From TrEMBL:
Official protein name in the record: Tubulin-specific chaperone A
Similarity section: Belongs to the TBCA family.
One Pfam family hit: TBCA
Sorted UniProt keywords: Chaperone, Cytoplasm, Cytoskeleton, Microtubule
Originating organism: Lodderomyces beijingensis
């Protein structure tokens, strides 16, 4: 069974990975929309792809806030942690 420390570390790592994926998606979608515009694609299709891009762009700060929240929670937890586990990974994430 994972410990409280491991749960907090894994949650933070997962959200950091999620943010990276959203940023990657924004970059790829931005290129795709630019390519569609350059190729004079259907306006409706461009509009739909811009909506997808904007949704991804909105998620980046949301996930960024979640990272800050999880880092703070982990920092507070480590401040009172007295267990035997190796905390180096947790500290490197903060």
């Amino acid at each position: 069974m994972p410990t409280q420390l491991q749960i907090k570390v894994d949650a933070l790592k997962r959200v950091i990975k999620e943010e990276k994926l959203y940023r990657q998606e924004v970059a790829e979608q931005d290129k795709y929309v630019a390519q569609m515009k350059a190729n004079n694609a259907d306006e409706y299709e461009i509009k739909k792809q811009v909506e997808v891009l904007e949704e991804s762009q909105r998620m980046v700060p949301v996930v960024g806030d979640k990272i800050k929240e999880l880092k703070q929670s982990l920092k507070e937890y480590l401040g009172t942690y007295t267990g035997e586990e190796d905390t180096s990974e947790a500290k490197s994430l903060i």
